[in-house]
Amino acid sequence: MDQSQTPLLDALEEYHRLDRYGFSPPGHRQGRGADDRVTKVLGVGPFRSDVLASGGLDDRKSSNGYLSKAEQLMAEAVGAEQAFFSTCGSSLSVKAAMMAVAGNDPGGLLVSRDSHKSIVAGLVFSGVTPRWITPRWDEEMHFSHPPSPDQVRAMWEKYPDAAGALIVSPSPYGTCADIGAIAQVCHERGKPLIVDEAWGAHLPFHDDLPTWAMDAGADVCVVSVHKMGAGFEQGSVYHVQGDLVDGTHLSACADLLMTTSPNVMLYSAMDGWRRQMVEHGADLLGRALALAGRTRERIAGIDGLTVLEDRLLGEEASHDLDRLQILIDVSELGVSGFQCTDWVRENCHLDLGMHDHRRIMATMSMADDDDTADRLVTALDQVAQAAASFDPPPSISLPSPEELQLESVLSPRDAFFGKAEMVDAGEAAGRIAAEQITPYPPGIPAVVPGELLDQAVVDYLRSGVDAGMNIPDATDASLQQFRVVVDN
């Protein structure tokens, strides 16, 4: 196929060139009806591009085939057999993959316990029973690593009837699993491997990045184009290969969840990004990796900051690392990652991609240059100097890895939709959670519906909130109370 083509982008350009107009949604009519106060902030461009329903650019509404051709080009560009676009983010894509693989299977699905909250939402929607794979833990740093092939093999021996396995790689911290070995473990049993690779859309386009899931033998791979690519928020692609997952059924599962009014801007941006990567990706990403390498060295030279790399890799840690993700330990400064992130945002007007009780993270991309890197290093130098003036961070009660592994006693679906009540935090231990509770970022639930709360996790979450941890999905954001299943 001619990878210089961009079917969706070209169709949108033709739409404007022909001065087409539609007596159908969207009602703003290419911005004619939008409030001037809105277009002053957003510009008229987004409205002029919001023509999907009336423009025939979605294959479900016309026979033009623009979308399917763009998806075929994407699949060829990355070496997958099939690719499908989603405008509801990888949150939708991974739910569709779970439903396609295990939607009506009593054996459940092997799921890495360091999964994003969208995967837990998929368990609630689908009713799929999770068979949790425990991640590897660096207890001293209170940091999880993706599961090893041996851990996945052990879970298959325990649950041989599971429909498939799902792991997350890269993690939100840039750490990667040994996908090739894990895929082999699954395929020895004739079972598919789903990889939530939301942070890895760029991986197919440069040899010095970690191995892309499709190249490593995964059956389904989900990527978020907006995270490490150049698409809009909510743009996602899910890829399929092999004969263990029916691509047509997977697409039908996605259609159950997807909006019937997708935005052509999201589609077109993914279409254009694919062309950019095919033509210039190796050069752009090569320069980004070189810049990230220099930036890592500069940050490591700041007193009190430790750039994590070797500590993240090894036999008992992660298999590989995306070095565009710069993870920094700030504990030597005597402050928390929460405090550093807040200070940098307020005083330097910079937003950092990740933070927890002792770490912050800066995500670099092909869009960065020496100027943005200088701004980052300057801000980190300033926060390191200012840290002595910070109040001592509130202590967080960090549970052991064993205490973090809560016992599942009900399915997430039954617990979430069952009869529930609110109880005071002091009464929560020993009760079954009816909600997911997710420190954010990175968005990995500490509590999943159906798990038995223990005192260590309750104390961890309560003290975390007091220290600045954000928990957006708890019924009571202060965690003075917990939503639990009503005892029979």
Quick tags:
alpha/beta, Aspartate Aminotransferase, domain 2, Aspartate Aminotransferase, domain 1, Ornithine Decarboxylase, Chain A, domain 4, 3 domains, 7-stranded mixed β-sheet, 4-stranded antiparallel β-sheet, globular
Q: What percent of the residues sit in helical stretches (DSSP H or I)?
A: 25-40%
Integer-rounded radius of gyration: 23 Å
CATH topology of the largest domain: Aspartate Aminotransferase, domain 2
Number of domains: 3
End-to-end separation = 61 Å
CATH architecture of the largest domain: 3-Layer(aba) Sandwich
CATH-defined superfamily of the largest domain: Type I PLP-dependent aspartate aminotransferase-like (Major domain)
Overall pLDDT: 93
Helix segment tally: 17
Largest sheet, in brief, is: 7 strands, mixed
What is the highest CATH level, the class of the largest domain? Alpha Beta
Spatial order of strands in the largest sheet: 1-10-9-8-6-2-3
Unreliable stretches covering 5 or more consecutive residues: none
Strand residue percentage:
5-15%
Shape: globular
- The tally of beta strands, per DSSP, is 17
